[in-house]
Write a structure and sequence with these properties.
77% of the residues lie in helices and 0% in strands. It has 8 helices and no strands. The longest helix is centred in the last third of the chain and has 49 residues.
Length: 205
């Protein structure tokens, strides 16, 4: 466990190598560039390869790398990738320039619309959980007040106070449940809209 921790710390501090010495010695830099682009890495990853291969004495052929990168880029900068990147809250990939890959930008915009709705849905669910907890707490208090109201061993004044508080809490409980039902309807409508947008997008591919 200690060794694993040391390795992870070293990776955090200095960055783990992008390529092993064996990979550096056998590298087809055009293929490496192609795979990096198709995998969504920025072109600056070539500098990381240079650092990883420095100890082996192997130099990155940047011309071949960039050529391969340009060939692999269309396989990443697609409308579907843009949609899924935005849908999961990712940043716009700078290598997918809008003029060169307008379909990526279009997908990103569509995915961002879904992401915004999902954020609203998460906020609604948090609010619903909060309201539900309040409702449960009120129900517990109402139950206790009903017991006090109906307890003949308590004084009439105590029972009268219990009745008064019970009336107030039951009214509050009713309002809270109405609010909760409204929030749940909004949540269901948002969920349906998100599902509809997702389905429409994938049907259009």
């Amino acid at each position: 466990r200690r060794l694993t921790t040391i390795i992870l710390m070293n990776c955090t501090l200095s960055g783990c190598a992008t390529m092993s010495p064996e990979e550096c010695l056998q590298a087809n830099w055009e293929e490496v560039g192609y795979n990096d682009a198709a995998g969504g890495y920025p072109v600056s990853r070539s500098a990381e390869h240079r650092e990883a291969c420095a100890e082996t004495g192997v130099s990155v052929d940047f011309e071949l790398y960039r050529h391969g990168y340009s060939l692999g880029l269309p396989y990443y900068c697609t409308r579907e990738t843009g949609f899924e990147t935005a849908d999961h809250g990712g940043d716009f990939a700078s290598q997918c320039q809008r003029q060169q890959f307008p379909e990526y930008a279009e997908g990103f915009s569509e995915g961002n619309e879904v992401y915004v709705l999902k954020s609203e849905l998460r906020d609604l669910e948090t609010l619903i959980d909060d309201r539900s907890a309040q409702s449960e707490a009120l129900l517990t208090q109402i139950s206790q007040l009903r017991i006090a109201r109906d307890n003949p061993e308590l004084s009439s004044e105590t029972r009268r106070e219990a009745r008064y508080q019970l009336t107030q809490l039951e009214s509050l409980y009713s309002e809270l449940n109405q609010d909760l039902e409204s929030l749940q309807r909004s949540r269901d409508a948002l969920f349906a809209e998100i599902s509809s947008l997702n389905a429409a997008f994938y049907r259009s591919l």
